Sequence to fold (334 residues):
Amino acid sequence: MEITINVKRFNPEGNNAEHFFQDYTLEVEDYSTVLDALIKIREDIDGSLALRCSCRAAICGSCAMRVNGHAKLVCKTKILDVSTDGSNFITVEPMGNLPVIKDLVTDMKPFWDRIRAVKPWIQPDGPEPTEEYVAPNEAMLHLNGVMGCIMCGACVSDCTVLEIDKNFLGPAALAKAYRFVADPRDAEDHERLRAYSEYGGIWDCTRCMECVQVCPKGVAPMDRIMGLREKAIEIGFDNNNGSRHTEAFNESIRNSGHLDELRLPVKTFGMGGLFVLGSMLNVPAILSNIPNLIGMLPVAIRAFRRGKVPPMIHKKIHGYEKVKNIFEKMESKK
Fold:
């Protein structure tokens, strides 16, 4: 069949050194993958096209690119699966959130820097063991999913947080972090979770699920981040905006059946005492968080103009007891 592939090009040595799109029309077999088509373009049509690939079996992870706006391993992405609208027109771009070296080849250094930042190695307690450390079978089975990561960077490519904040560790690094926090042979859980709870760590994820959708190996990085959050709160790392937001959210839903949007940001920034009659105000905490609340004023003003202002008095919904029962059952299971 005949297809047209719209490739995003970039030549750093060119006169303009700007990104541009170039169409390639070619004949392919029905069973062809996107990588097959790209290799055919490079070999038969345009030898200047740069791309990265190796195993062609979804093992090495080197051929991750964006196809029609979402990250994929192009070696396992069939053309028929991404041209289902009948147009036979496919757009291929380099991975997002990483510097482009040339055409479809990205610089993976920022990716590996984030992986190294979570210390992805076992740190046992005490002296070096003299014999093999045998881990419980059930513990290692639990880690099978996250250990399936092939470091392709697809989740990083489509991470919406990294698009606006390069300080975020990213889904791949935090999934790797979970692998060691959950490993019974590692003794640095406390220090790891303390570091991951700081700015740029587990609480910066917005749970958009893009990393879950694009991961070619089903690692589900967002689920691992949620697991790290739970472990961090359990051992006492709850004095930060992220954990306070989670606790305030749960408390509001549990006690009234719906979200108290007016008090949620105040409790998140550690100023909940302002709404408790007769409580002692933590003045330093309040003063330190005033810039955060001031930064939210434009949002509040826009909401007010559109009539989207939550009520001053938060009322319980009818049948909220059933919602509360759900919380109690979940807590009893833990």
In short: The CA atoms of residues 132 and 228 lie 27 Å apart.
